[in-house]
Amino acid sequence: MAVLVAIVLALLVAAAVLLVASRSASASERSETPLQAFRNGVSGRRKPDSEQQAAAEAAAVEPVDLSLAQFLRETVDEGEAYLQVDDLAATLQRARDKAAGTLPGNRKPLSGR
Q1: Where does residue 63 rank: exposed (0-12), middle (13-18), buried (19+ CB within 10 A)?
Q2: Which is more confidently placed, 106 or 59?
Q3: What phi and psi, each to the nearest 5 degrees, are found at residue 54?
Q4: How many CB atoms lie within 10 A of CB 58?
Q5: For residue 97, with 0-12 CB atoms within 10 Å meaning exposed, 13-18 middle and 19 or more buried, which class applies?
Q6: Whole-number mean pLDDT of the chain?
Q7: Which of 18, 23, 53 is nearest to 39 (CA)?
Q8: What is the spatial distance between Cα 108 and Cα 113, in angstroms, rounded to a whole number?
């Protein structure tokens, strides 16, 4: 009995959601109501179009078992590195100089005083 009540309650909530969605759709979205979208989805599941069929076939392809080392060897990029060591060293040196200048004992005296 409790299962039947839960099913009926779930169906009533689903119907209420469809009703609210159909009422709140803007004027530009009124070309397809939520009920029509639901029907199109169900019919698309029964008779998928060519795009859905191609996606299903791509998902059904057997996965390739590949180790991480082999994957990295096969996908290595010989182009220029993202970080250049010289640029990184220069940035670190500037940061070090700024940090050292803010310490109380390492301040440079102001000229003219």
Answers
A1: exposed
A2: 59
A3: -65, -40
A4: 8
A5: exposed
A6: 80
A7: 18
A8: 12
DSSP characters for the chain?
-HHHHHHHHHHHHHHHHHHHHHHH--GGGTTS-HHHHHHHHHHHHHS--HHHHHHHHHHTSPPPP--HHHHHHHT---S--SS-HHHHHHHHHHHHHHHHHHSGGGPPPPTT-
pLDDT tens per residue across span 14-68: 999 877 877 776 545 557 777 777 787 788 777 878 887 888 888 888 888 889 9
Residue 20 is which amino acid? V
Q: Tell me what percent of the residues of the chain surpass a pLDDT of 70.
A: 86
Rounded to a whole number of angstroms, the distance between the first and last alpha carbons of the chain is: 93
